[in-house]
Amino acid sequence: MKKTALLTFVAGIAFVATCLTSCKKNEDTVVAPTLYDSLGGTTMVSDPRGGMIETGRLGIRTVVDSTIFVIAGDAKVNVFFPTLLAEVTAGNTSGFSALEKNLTDFFCVATGAKNFTYGGKSMVAAHDPAQNSRMNGKAANVDFDNFVADLVKGAQKVGLPLDLIGRIGRVVETTRTQVVQK
Asked: How far apart are CA 30 and CA 60, in angstroms?
């Protein structure tokens, strides 16, 4: 039952991702808000870490952080990140900070943010141990499914509404063919 619900969720995510793009054809056409807009958009708020931050970016970063912590506690997924786990355990958070920034940038761009760019590795390179020494093995479909489950848990822990979790999941599903390499 859980597996069927997860697969239905992921399939729905893929469908919505294909429907997210819209363009203004004439003045009578209403442009739908992006997922980024639905996550808070460009409204500036105080960043708990200092300075100001777009509400959408803060929300995405919060989900990313929560998800990373869920993954750290999940033996089915954390086996892919031994270098990161060893660094954090030793008090070195530089790898965590880089991962957090790359994932936050990726999700900002993928959900429609206009003020950010993603400068990390391609999804293929980031998940291929031959191109990324921080990865410990290639992922199979079951590993990707486990990651999606952890993403859902991370998003739920920070109180993200189910409809937005589904929309984020659809974005993630579009990367399956690049991430799954075995």
From this structure: 26
Q: Is the dihedral of CA 111, 15, 77, 73 positive or negative?
A: positive
Phi, psi at 180, each rounded to 5°: -75, 115
- In degrees and rounded to multiples of 5, residue 53 shows phi and psi of -150, 150
Q: Which H or E run includes 66? A: helix 55-72
- What is the third-level CATH fold of 2-20+32-179? Globin-like (1.10.490)
Instruction: Provide the residue ranges of all domains of the chain, joining segments of one domain with +.
Output: 2-20+32-179
Quote the pLDDT of residue 3. 43
CA distance 129 to 88: 20
What pTM, to 2 d.p., does this model score?
0.81
Q: In the numeric block, which tokens belong to residue 138?
A: 């290639």
Tokens of 19: 């429907």
CA 99 to chain centre: 11
